[in-house]
Design brief:
seven-stranded mixed beta sheet; alpha+beta; 42% helix; 325 residues; 14% strand; 13 helices; single chain
């Protein structure tokens, strides 16, 4: 075993995080954790994983649920395409008769990329596949002094090859070790270099480049988008609709979205900001209490206000609704 891997495994024995999905080789439990953690911090994702496992302890039970139920349980995590893919794949796995046990088969599941396939394959089936996530990029870039941008084709190939080259026989334990090392020791800000077991061999530390690595090219253009919502209240009921395909928040529910605000509506919130990966949302929120029940646009329907919590909503809508009295 190479000295780099050996040092990480020794560090992990004393410093590894005790996470419940690491106490099992059930591919369903591991897959669920990886999907939840794709865009979510471990601290927040942990509670969602526990709730999902309590409600749907097997992939068959998750597959039998409705998409609305899954989206409702997912509410607050954001990036809702993960939840839709989760539900779709659960049904796919049941139809296949079980979880695929090869990297190719796992990678063929919707919403599963190279990293997630390697993680599931390694943790559940012991496959010799190196994981490469943000933590791994950071550890490898700093330790070996690599300044090739991690979000380029060249960079992805270089880091994937290096990670695989360093992989020892026990792929599961090592993959967990290097991810935890990046998450708690070699952190993005204020890494613990003074007590790092790899400090003597770390190129970035020796050359004073810890804060400069890894390198990532700035390619994303963030656009602003303004949304105007009107909460219609009439005799204890309100109007909502389910968002369709081809836009953000597919499958989630929201109040009346309009460019034509009634003159007697009351502004409750203005310029409420929500930052997504590709855009910044700015929302205004009005309360309208008409004397007569208005005609709703196509796709909207009435529900009792007391039933509003039964419908999965984007986090932005939850924030806006908090201003209601």
């Amino acid at each position: 075993m190479n000295s780099f891997a050996l040092t990480l495994l020794e560090w992990y024995r004393d410093n590894g995080r005790a996470l419940p999905w690491r106490q099992t080789q059930d591919p369903y439990a591991i897959w669920l954790s990886e999907i939840i953690l794709q865009q979510t911090q471990v601290k927040q994702g942990h509670d969602y994983w526990v709730r999902f496992m309590r409600r749907w302890p097997t992939v068959e039970q998750l597959a039998a649920a409705s998409e609305d139920e899954v989206l409702r349980e997912w509410q607050g995590l954001g990036y809702y395409s993960r939840a839709r893919n989760l539900h779709f794949v659960a049904r796919q796995i049941v139809q296949m008769g079980g979880f695929p046990q090869t990297l190719e088969g796992i990678r063929g599941l919707k919403g599963v990329g190279d990293y997630t396939a390697a993680a599931i394959g390694s943790f559940a089936f012991g496959l010799p596949a190196a994981v490469v996530d943000g933590n791994v990029y950071r550890v490898l870039a700093r330790h070996f002094g690599i300044d090739t941008p991690i979000n380029t084709t060249e960079g992805k190939k270089l880091f994937a090859a290096l990670a695989q080259e360093l992989l020892p026989t026990d792929s599961s334990l090592y993959n967990q070790a290097i991810m935890d090392f990046g998450a708690t020791q070699c952190t993005p800000q204020s890494p613990r270099c003074l007590i790092c077991p790899l400090q003597e061999s770390c190129v970035a530390l020796r050359e004073g480049r810890v804060g400069q690595l890894p390198v990532k090219l700035k390619t994303l253009k963030v656009k602003e988008r303004r949304l105007v919502y009107v909460y219609v209240r009439h005799q204890g009921q309100t109007a909502i609709h389910r968002r369709g395909e081809g836009d953000i928040w597919q499958g989630l529910y929201e109040p009346l979205l309009t460019d034509d605000v009634p003159s007697d509506a009351v502004l409750l919130r203005q310029n409420v900001k929500r930052v997504l990966t590709h855009r910044i949302l700015l929302a205004d929120f009005y309360l309208w209490q008409p004397e007569e029940r208005p005609q709703l646009p196509e796709g909207y329907f009435w529900i009792e206000e007391t039933e509003l919590d039964d419908y999965a909503k984007p986090r932005l809508i939850e924030i806006l609704l908090d201003s209601l009295t």
